[in-house]
UniProtKB/TrEMBL annotation:
This is Serine hydrolase. Keywords: Hydrolase. InterPro entries: AmpC-like, Beta-lactam-related, Beta-lactam/transpept-like, DUF7586. It comes from Streptomyces lavendofoliae. It holds the Pfam family Beta-lactamase. One of its GO terms (molecular function) is hydrolase activity. Gene3D superfamilies: DD-peptidase/beta-lactamase superfamily (3.40.710.10). PANTHER family: D-ALANYL-D-ALANINE CARBOXYPEPTIDASE, D-ALANYL-D-ALANINE-CARBOXYPEPTIDASE/ENDOPEPTIDASE AMPH. The keyword Hydrolase applies. Residues 44-360 form the Beta-lactamase-related domain.
Length: 482
């Protein structure tokens, strides 16, 4: 039985199992301890066996490169590797979101723009671009029957066919309600603003710059075939692979574990040819509050967010008939994992991928780069370092690379933030409470530093020092005992 077209990757070894069957297995690794590599392969093998899927492949990237891949198959000689294509379903959505954020960064639209401004006539035009990206537009999850994932996109030639008679189910902006139709609208928005098809924009603006040569809108060999596995018997039947038409921007893509690892690295580090790291940080920020009782997951702008074992992971899951996919990355650990399978149901690739991240991050924590002194520093900037006081709260300011600074509490809880240097001598907050806020130095008439102004908060060199610029003034009697 062939489970893939054009081959299925290399086979490193085969493992006999009771009953006379032979299960294909492949695994490769570099710079991993043998125990770590075996734990990764064990997780993938267990997922394929217990999930009852024809084939499954996993890959792990760390610090920008793929360092492990492993696959399992029910047919010897057709074991998938990191170059085997699978359909990735809703992992298409982060690609679409990146295209929209590029339009925002170029000034061609604003996230608060109503859809109607750029794509009139949909009937839901008052919802905003940001609401569509974060699934808070209140739109229906699916298009009207027949089931769009298993029927040709030609059955829905117009947006009205995708949206149906009652596209809005909830007030816009109030809650998270996952919507495939919303991402269909975003695909059409991209075409309206960019003036080219969604597929052309994807190719020119993401796939080509990032070198994702094995990510396509239609399968290219070697690729896995999609299968349905009977829930009560070990038998299978093939699933159709339909072209989704207008709904392509919600789930059309095929890709490989290798390409998706490269995409995961981009989602954490950015690439000036596609999107800045700052914009990707914005995409990784929760767009709406989580649902009641669901504090371990959320959604940003095109990216899912989860907390697992004390780690925050960003990425996306995906499914279409015959395929399951998961991509997760821990930005803090610099570890990304991708899992792809060719069955309609069975394992949970998203859960497996988070396990692969955990295995590597726990067993082999990231080794920090050597400390190195800065190549040079402005004496005026060096003068600002050290302790500062907001009221009686003690903070420390230190210099970062590139002229940036970091302001952190010296003890207890507090509002720590990093700041990017601007051309006018100010700094802009990058994270935490002060994201987007401006930090500036306020000087006296003689040029000496009076205080730091951070969003109207005055940070002084001493706590409530008489004569300092303390809002409300300082009691002239000064500090006293009981």
């Amino acid at each position: 039985m062939r489970l893939s077209e054009g081959g299925g990757g290399r086979t490193r070894s085969t493992v006999p199992v009771p009953g006379g069957y032979t299960w294909g297995m492949t695994s490769s690794f570099e710079d991993l301890l043998p125990g770590t590599a075996r734990a990764l392969l064990h997780r993938v093998a267990t997922a394929q066996a217990e999930g009852r899927v024809p084939s499954l492949v996993g890959a792990v990237a760390r610090d920008g490169r793929v360092l492990w891949e492993g696959g399992r198959s029910c047919v010897d000689g057709h074991v998938p590797d990191a170059d085997t294509q699978y359909r990735i379903g809703s992992i298409t959505k982060p690609f679409t979101a990146v295209l929209v954020m590029r339009l925002r960064d170029e000034g061609l639209l604003d996230l608060n723009d109503p859809l109607e401004k750029h794509l009139p006539g949909t009937g839901v035009g008052e919802v905003t671009v940001a609401q569509l990206l974060g699934h808070s537009a209140g739109l229906a999850a699916e298009s009207p029957a027949p089931w769009w994932e298993r029927t040709p996109g030609s059955l829905r030639p117009e947006l009205a066919d995708v949206l149906g008679e009652k596209p809005a189910l909830h007030p816009a902006g109030r809650l998270h309600h996952y919507s495939n139709t919303g991402y269909t609208l975003l695909g059409s928005l991209i075409e309206a603003v960019r003036g080219v098809s969604w597929e052309q924009a994807l190719q020119a603006e993401i796939l080509d710059p990032l070198g994702l040569t094995r990510t396509t809108t239609r399968p290219v060999a070697p690729h896995a075939g999609g299968w349905a596995v009977h829930p009560w018997a070990d038998v299978m039947l093939p699933e159709p692979a339909e072209d989704l038409g207008l709904m392509a921007s919600a789930g059309q893509l095929w890709s490989t574990a290798s390409d998706l690892c490269r995409f995961a690295v981009f989602l954490t580090e950015g690439d000036e040819r596609v999107l800045r790291a700052e914009t990707l940080r914005e995409m990784r920020t929760p767009a709406v509050p989580p649902e009641a009782g669901d504090w371990d997951s959320g959604y940003g702008l095109g990216l899912q967010l989860v907390r697992r074992g004390g780690r925050t992971l960003v990425g996306h899951s995906g499914s279409l008939p015959g395929f399951l996919a998961g991509l997760w990355v821990s930005v803090e650990d610099g570890v990304a994992a991708v899992v792809l399978a060719n069955a309609t149901s069975g394992p949970a690739p998203g859960v497996i991928a988070t396990d692969l991240v955990r295995i590597v991050a726990d067993a082999e924590p990231r080794i920090p780069e050597p400390w190195r002194p800065l190549p040079g520093i402005d004496p005026a900037l060096l003068e600002l370092t050290g302790p500062w006081y907001w009221g009686t709260y003690a903070y420390g300011l230190r210099v970062l690379g590139g002229g940036g600074v970091e302001l952190c509490p010296l003890r207890g809880q507090g509002r720590a933030s990093r700041f990017r240097a601007e051309a006018d001598g100010t700094w802009t907050g990058l994270d935490g409470y002060y994201t987007g806020e401006t930090l500036r130095v306020v000087r006296r008439g003689d040029g000496s530093v009076s205080h730091l102004d951070l969003g109207s908060f005055a940070f002084t060199r001493e706590p409530y020092q008489p004569g300092d610029a303390v809002p409300g003034g300082v009691d002239p009697a000064g500090w006293r005992g009981l």
